[in-house]
Amino acid sequence: MSDMLIQGEFVGDEAIEGAANELKAIERKVGLQRSIAIGEVVISRFFNGDVARWRDQRRNKRNSIRKLASHPSCPFSRSALNQAVGVCAVMRTFPEVADYTHVGATHVAATLHVPLVKQLAWLRIAEQEQLSVRELKARLAGDSPTALRNSSPLKRTLNELGRLESALGELTKAGQSIPSEAWDPILDRLRVLQSAVLKAARPREQLLPSRLRALHLEVAASAS
Fold first, then answer.
1. What is the band of 3 on the pLDDT scale with cuts at 50, 70, 90?
2. What is the DSSP letter of 3?
3. From residue 192, how far is each of 4, 74, 162, 164, 188 by CA, in Å?
4. How far, in Å, CA of 114 to CA of 105, rounded?
């Protein structure tokens, strides 16, 4: 019999087989309850029921789940086990999530890479705003350090300005068919935008003001 060191004790194949059979018995469960049940088996059998210990024992965690997943009686893959244990850990840490009516296991799983201090806040948002898993993942992606670096106010404004230029380009092509009074609110908004950008821009950052001036002149010419 081969043994494996988990939590400082040797755990033999019998323990792995017992866990695998227990998982097989809950295979038919679905959704959040199944994830919680899977996680409870792993955490209770290999980490003394202690979520904090599961989080801390990274090397042992990988070993135990890998060996469990490789057992012929285990119905779940290693990735499925890892995700289920992560979901279970979140549910233990934040019991209120169990009372949510919209958030499910896949919502919780989507937050597993998020720092613990942010997980509950995101799950509350998903519940309150009835976000789909896809919408939640999109929000989380926008909150990542990389996304924040790539979405500075200046870059976002330039992107929006590009879309505005494209829209106004189409508008000026149709200028002859647009009544002159319809141009007034557009010109007024452009003046306000130009004034706001000129106030915000530092002297050496003239890219936005110059593009807004060009837009203003182009629209004014079309409206005349």
1. very low
2. E
3. 70, 65, 18, 15, 6
4. 15
